[in-house]
Amino acid sequence: MALRFATAGTDVEAAFREGLGRSQSRRERAGALGGAAPDQFFKTPLPVYACSLDALLQEGSGCARQSGWRYLLARDRSVVETADVVDDGKGGAPPVFRGATRGGTVIPKLDQALHAIEGYASGAGQFELRILQIPALYIVALWLSDEGGGEDLFVDVTNLPLRVQKSGDFWGATLVSAQQALVTESALKLDSDK
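The chain above was modelled as a monomer; its predicted structure follows.
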């Protein structure tokens, strides 16, 4: 399997650099990232696609819309920080730096997922690497979009064990979770109305 990385526009890159520089001084960031200056880190922007619960229930697997870019800042082949730039990809509003994140539980799992898909490279095909977020279900997944029209692959980084899932399996489980969330929300509303 060959991975292709989408290219962020120069306006997205400028928003990333300006925002990251504003968020912390070089000295503070260098200390937080193991003593290296930010320019020494591998930076990969991945397109982020988001899907609301309503859109998921109405559109199923077609619900995802590009919402921005997530930069993976890595050192020694390990992701140590992410930085988000909001950009709808349609040119309506200029890209905006959303913030940088270090630590937490998602970054190490994201790093593990990236290494897992490297080991899955036995199949043929050209895949674009993306991130899918479904905030209402607390889902963050690596999305390998098959550019040849074949089946996409997903690695849900919010659930263990990490595993590569075919599109049908991933979206089937996600739709079940969405329906359960809707039932729970309805039950809570009924209880509060009593």
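The CA atoms of residues 35 and 146 lie 38 Å apart.
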